[in-house]
Every structure is written in C-alpha cells, then in structure tokens.
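Duplicate of earlier report; Olfactory receptor input re-posted below.
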Amino acid sequence: MWLNTTVSPFLLTGFPGMEKVHHWIAIALLVVYISILLGNGTLLFLIRGDHNLHEPMYYFLAMLASTDLGVTLTTMPTVLGVLWLNQREIGHGVCFSQAYFIHTLSIVESGVLLAMAYDRFVAICNPLRYTSILTNTRVMKIGMGVLTRAGLSIMPIIIRLHWFPYCQSHVLSHAFCLHQDIIKLACADITFNRLYPVVVVFAMVLLDFLIISFSYILILKTVMGIASGEERAKALNTCISHICCILVFYVTVVGLTFIHRFGKHAPHVVHITMSYVYFLFPPFMNPVIYSIKTKQIQSGIIRLFSLRHTRA
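Output:
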C-alpha cells in the first residue's frame, strides 16, 4: 500500500470556458435543487403524516425520496460553492467522503427501484398474501439490505483512495468528487479501482434491471389473464409511476455511460452537463411522476394545502 502524504487539496471545476456565466448557471441549479428538496420533502411529509399512505408501496417510495434527497444534499454544497463563490478547494477526506456517498446512493436508488418492483409483483401476482408477505418488519429488512449492499460494495475502492499518492494535477473535472475522477490523479497502480466498479455495476445495477424486467414480464402475464378490461387497466395503472421512475433512472445511466464510453471527442462541457443530468433529473422527476400518476399522493397534497388554507 502507498501512504498518502500529499497535503495539497483537490480543485473542483465548474464549466470550463463559461466562468462568466457561472452565477447564472448557479441560479438555475439552485432552482432545481430547491425544487428537488421541496418535492421529495413533501412526499416524505405526506407519507409520514397520512395514515392512508402507511403501506409498503409508499414506504418504498419514501426510501426513494430519501435517497434522492441524499444525492442532492451531498452534491449541492460543493456545486453552488464552485459556481457561486468560486470555492474550488476541497480536502482529500471530504472529497473521498462525498464520492462514497454519491456512488453509494446511486446503487441504493437501483436497489430501491428493485424493491418497488417486488412490491408491485406481490401486489398483482399474489394479492391475497400481500399484507402477510410485505409486513412492516420485512419492508424494514429490505430497506436495510439495500442500504447495506450499497454501502459495503463501494467501501473497498474508497478506502484505497486514502492510501494513493497524488502527484499529478490536483484538478478534478467536476464540481463534486467522483471516484473515476480521483483515480486519474493517483500515481499508483489503480487496476483494482478501475476494474472493481465495472464488476459492481454489472453485478448490481445491471442485475437489478434484469430482475425488474423479469418481474414486469410476470406481472404483464398475470394482468393479461384478468378477464375484466377495467380490472386490467386498474392493475397496470398502479405500475405506471414505478415504470416511469425506472425509465428515468436507467435512461440517464445509459446516457452517461454512452457519453463516457463513446463521446471521447465530444466537448468537455457535454460530459459535465450529462453528469448533472444524471444526478439531478431522477430526483427532480420522481416526485413529479408520483404526484401526477398516483391518486393517493394527489389527494394527500390537496388535503395538505386545504389544511394550510383553512388554518390561514
């Protein structure tokens, strides 16, 4: 192992060549960040306070909203600091911690989407046993399993970052710390840190997607066996919000992967922009999707605003 004796901090980067409009970009991102905080915060508030939403489906939705809030709160301070105040320096320990939480929460999101697919599978394919299978205890265990899997899987590569010597340029390519950016600055054998994340992505994120897809094939098979067209539509309607969230998450994952893999000649600003889309679009869209597509959430929001209006 190599003991890291470098004391020079890393330097975060905003949008190179666009420094004159950093303040305007910061304002736009601040609006997005506030929207994410309000949207996901409202979902959590509704699920916590409305007894009609104390069901496994909404507990998993609360996990998704918490994950989205976690990603936002992890990246927001450094992004706004760089773009608004030009505070580019970040200590190694803080940088490694930020990278750990960013990558962990990405895997958590994939795991929560898988848990939500399991919830829909049980609700539609085995409705009579739904409440006995997805008890509060089991939902909690699933949540802890998703969190533990993500946290432990990312830990090996982050721990190694503390031991690498950094004798290259200390300039990172984003306004937040990513593992793949940090290892480019290390003067050491980074083979493990290059290969391990690929294994994690294939073993977890891709596997999650395949299991989700298989679950929906079984769900569709069950729904097609329902005689009543109205009942078929009702069953499928309960899955629409989840399917939209799956598409939002995995389309951004594929888009980011495609840009990094095949867009080597694309302008650097395209890579940076795609990274922001990856981290901001799902947390922004998930509350919107569930607010539009889920009647119980709509009713909860209406009751919330009606209550505030009455008190006023």
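The chain has ten helices and two strands.

Merging into the original ticket.
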